[in-house]
Each structure stands twice: as C-alpha cells, then as structure tokens.
Please model this.
Amino acid sequence: MRIRSSWFGFVAVSLSCVVMACGNAKRLPAGKRLFIGSQTAIADKEVPKNVRKALAKDMLTVARPKPNTTLLGVRLKLTMYNMAGPPKRKRGIRQWVRRKVGEPPVMADDVSIENNKALMVNLLQNRGFFQASATGHLDTSHKKKAHAVYEVSSGPQYTIKSATFRKDTSRIMHDIADGFDKTLLIADAPYSLDLIKAERVRIDRDLKEKGYFYFRPDYIIVVADTSVGEHKVNLTVRVKRREVPDEASHVFTINDVYVFTNYKLSGKQQDSGIADNKQTDNYHIIDHKNSYNPRVFTDALIFEKGDRYSLDDQNASLSRLVNIGNFKFVKNRFEPVADSLLDVYYYLTPYPRKSLRFEAGALTQNDNRAGVKGSVSWRRRNAFRGAEELAFKVNGGVEMQYSGIVKQPNFYNVGTELSLSIPRFAMPFVRINTASRYLPHTTLNVKYNFESSAGLLRINSYSATYGYNWREGQHKEHDLRPLLFTYVKTDTLGNPGALKPMYGNLIFNGIILGSAYDFTYNTQSGPAGKNAFFFNGRIDVAGNILGLSEQANFDGNPRILFGSSYAQYILLQPDFRYYRQLSLSGMLAARIMAGIGIPYGNSATLPNIKQFWAGGNSDLRGFPSRLVGPGTFDMYDNSSTRKYIQTLGDMKLQMNLEYRQKIYQFLNAALFADAGNIWLYRDNADYPGGKLTSNFYRELAVDAGIGLRFDFKILLLRFDLGMPVRKPWLAENNRWVLQSIDFGDTNWRRTNLIFNIAIGYPF
Model:
C-alpha cells in the first residue's frame, strides 16, 4: 500500500509540474510569444550525411537567443520564475527565486533572423563552404509560441591543394622554413579557419623553442587562393614583416637567473638589487633567512645562464617549482638586459611552514553497514631545509551494521602514521636529476594500525615503506617501492552467538618483506578527446630471496624471520579502462581488471591484506560488499554452521560497463553492468568450489542496474541501484536468474536489490 501511495504522489507531483509548465505561455502579455528554439537543415546533398548532421547541430550553437532551458521537456526554471510572481520589494523570497532559481521568458521579439543567418553562413565559410547561403523565418503558427526555421545551402567544401611558405634570407624565415615539414596544412585536408589558427600556433611554438621570445602567432598570415578551381585552395603562409617588431626576430639567450624564496604579495616590485644575493651554480638565490638549501632550486630549475630561451624549459621550470610542494604561488618574469639577453626572475610565495588539519566523514557499504571516520594530521614543510614535508597523522573510525540478512560484527580501528616526502631521488652516494616537468619524490612511511571486530579478533599491524615516485611526461607515472615491510599480529577472541564466525581468511600472523612497482598510463590528463585510456599495472613480490635461500615450504619446512613466519608470493594486477565520448552529454566507460596472486614456498595462500574481494559499491554493485565467491562457494548455504565476515581470494577477474548521460547541469544518470569473481590458488576445505579451474568463465557473477550522480564539481555523490542477474553459487544450469526477477515481491526486493551510496565514480 505504501508503494502505491508513493507512486501516486510521485505521479501527482509530476502532473502538477507539467500543468504549471504548460501555463508558462499563457502568462505572457497579449500579442507576445514565447521563443522555444531554432531548427536548422542543410538542403543540398553535396556533403556526406554525417557531416550535414554535425553542421546543423553546430549552427544551432551560434543562433541567438537561446530558448529557456528545459529538464525532461519541462521549462522548470521558467515555471519557477512565473510561480514566484512579480516581487513587491527589492529584497525577499520572490526576488531571490526569480533571480537565482528562475529564468525570465525568452521572447520571440528578441530573435533576429538576419543576424542568425549571417552567423551561420560565417560558420560554414570558416569551414571551407565558401558558397554557403541561408534563408530563414519565424514560425508563428502557434498563438503563444514561436520557433525559428533556417534552411541552409552549404555548397561544396573546399580542400587544400597545396601549402607553401614564403621566405627570404633572414634567420627567422630560415627557422620557420626548417620546421614547415611539420605543417598542419596538408594536401586534401578540408579548409578550416581553426586549422589555420592551429598552424599559426604551431609555428609560434616552434620558434619559441628556437629562442624567439617575443614572437607571437598574430605575426603570421595565411593567404587563400580559390582561383585554382575544382573546389581547391592554395595556401601561402608568410610573416607580416611590416608589423613584426625588431625584437621578435631575435634569438634570446638566458643571462642571470634570480630566485626569491620568500616573495610577499604586496604589489611592490622586487629585484636583485634589494636583497642579499647568494650565487650558486649560475643561479642567484635571494633567501634572507637562509631557509632553503640552494640545491632545492638548482635541482628544480631547467634554465641556466647561457641557455637559449625555450618555452618548454620555461614551463618545465615553473611546473617543477610548483611540484616542490612548498610554495602556494609561483610566477616568473623576463627582462631584456642587452641585445638578445634575458634576465629571469622567479618569485616564490611559501605556504605556512606548519599546519594542522582535522577531517571527519561518514561511510556506507551496500550490505547495510555504515560508519564514521576522522583524522587529525600535522604537517611541517621544509622540515630539514631541503623542501621536505614531514607529516604525522592519527586516525580512527567505527563501522556498524544497522540491518540486513547477513549479520556482521562491528568494526573499530585506530592508527598513526609518520611520513616524509623529499622532492628528489634520495639515494646514498648518488645524485640523480631529471629534465621532466615533474619532480621525482622519495617517500618514507612508518605506520601502526589497530583493528578490532567486536568479540572476534584484534589485529595489530606495523609497516614501513621506502620508495620513489616520478612521472615520465604528462601521461606516464612510475611508483617504485624497493622496501615494503609489514608485521601483523592477530589475536582471536571469544565466539558469541550460536553460529561459529568464519574469520580464518582474515587472519595473517607474520612478516611481509618485499618490493612493489606500479606503472600508470592515463590520457585523461591531456586535452579532451573522443577516446581516453587508463592503465595501471602492478607487480608485488615478497620473501623471494629469503624463501629460495632457506628452501622454505609451508607444508613441510616453514621458515621463521625474527620469530615469525614470513610470506612468499608473486602478485600481478593489470587494470585497463576505456572511455568513449559518444556525444556532448553521453559517455561509455569500460573496465577490465585482473588479479593474479601466486603464493609459494613459505605461503599456502596470499596474506589477507594482499588478497582480492568481490562485491561492493565500486566493484560488483548488485551483490553485498566483499561476499561474492570464491568460485562457486555458497556463502548463503543454510546448512553451514559458520557465518562469514567477508570472503577473499588469491585471484580475481572483474569487468564493468557503464553508460553515463548528463541530464541537467549537475544531474547525471547511468546504466551499468558488472561481472566478476575471485578464486583461490589452492583448494581450501572451508571454501568448497573456490579453487581456480579452466571453467572459471562459467563462474562469473553478473549484475545490472541504474544510477544517479550529483556532480557538484568539487564533489560527486553517487547513488547506484543494482541487482544480480547471474549467481555463480547456484547449479550450473540455473545461474542466470533473469526469469526470477519480480519487482512486486517484497521478499525478492529485500534479498536482491542492492542500494549503493558512494563518492566519486566507480572507475
């Protein structure tokens, strides 16, 4: 009955909104019409259909004015504007609604057909349709509404026959000609004003790399000759010699480099003549308080005295100074001091040296668990005069289950962490520097964590990490941790309740001593395009030298280190993601991730902190968190005398597919499907059917669902509703459960619909 009432209320509210929206036009003054948009069509067939469709869409973007915005066909903002009514005071709720929430009606009287025709023809001509023409009229057949109709004749699109550069004997002309083999104006390419602008930028950037500091793209002109016939055009690229200032034709060299380490944003000019000047390695370091080791800046800066000016070196130097992490503002200035010489000034405004930060938050899991977490962190920048960052953090949290079929214990955790980040490769007796835009970082981390599952177990873990992080260009990142040390001590406690809790897969007592390496390739950080790729590959190894030297064997000859057993394994984890922009508002996202863990020697299985799990709000969204698998293992078997906190495996396969659609400003929708499972490397009597076999593809769990995302730019709040469509623990011929879907059955909904709340995209 509640469901019916809710649906009735929803339908009633929806109908009310539609009725109010329909009354928007009736509220207009007599004789006035609401402008509801424009229609465009290309009449001729001289260009392909897909090109005509794209042009018609682009022409709508230049038409003015824009009609009132709509949400699912309803002009909601205009409705709010009309509902508020004329304000009686300058301030008040009516005024606020009309100005901030609502939107005034766009009138048909504001439409200029002639101006829009000119804009559309201009757009076409800029894309090589030199014979374009347009007609248009305002359709006023409706009493209170009107829309604009445009019919465009594009004519043929002109293409480039040839592109040449006109040069003389000057050095700058010679340098432009040397790089003209990289021109964007290639034969048979469609003529485009945007392409010509891009070519001017390319020439300018090429000259900047050759030292022409004062050159600008505006000094280049491209002349088009359409008289060659056959809808072709010859392009001639030349320099506007009469408009180019003398300094723009000179190659500049770096003279002196000045670095101000404590620049105040006071607006007063600062230069090398008003401060102590410490010269080191061809740099002038102005550091009144002697706060920094000069090496910080000699390692970061690319420019040196005597170098030819380069735009890439300029940008790389600025980027590296920002990457140091000690300065909130970084800017530079160039000043000519003689013929073809530049002094460079870098002004650095530091962050406060010490800072204290408090964080608090809430979390949810899709198996009816919720919790709170918080942390206090202290940070000291430039801790040892080398721009190091020293941080100390204390954190804690609690997680409890408020409802659900599978009961879970309460979880508590508290921990501390001490970390040091050094903006360079810190190696004994070795000094390594790079010319990348991104400074490498050396990280040292020591951590302690205490976890407790109410009445079941306590876990004390100690860890230490030493490693390096560096970027190879814009898309590639490396993370090498040659030393990873973890010591875990687990205490099992009582056994409350009638069922025996199964937490054996959560317990690891001993030492993990190994190394790890991550490589990430991500094209999303570059210019937006139709296709984007993300790849992360990880290799994690532990105990190999120890195990091999001691001939360790978990079954007959387990070995001990510092009084505890140690883990021995190899773990590989590739993660590939693909993003395809289908339209301005629609995107397809896909992911495939595999985890391959091979325990051997001293280990029968991976340590639980290295194992994989399946199910959850960023994994298999139609299944409870961390309770899928391994293999065909049935966690829901009523004959079992055990209950499971979570299930883990040594291997994993996960696949996700998601269509994302923007609905309105910050509101997005999604359709998704997930598939995957985990498996064990060896048989385990506690998990029958859990070992990986050649039939693993028949043991995949599959789910599907819908979602809503509220994208507030700084925060994305995600709501996903998923349901299982394939359950691997059922008999092989009965694993697809589509036939049993029954949204009207309360019991089916309770046991199959999984509601996820999360922050950020799942992948």
User: Anything to note?
Assistant: Residues 27-67+106-153 form a domain with the Ubiquitin-like (UB roll) fold (CATH 3.10.20.310).
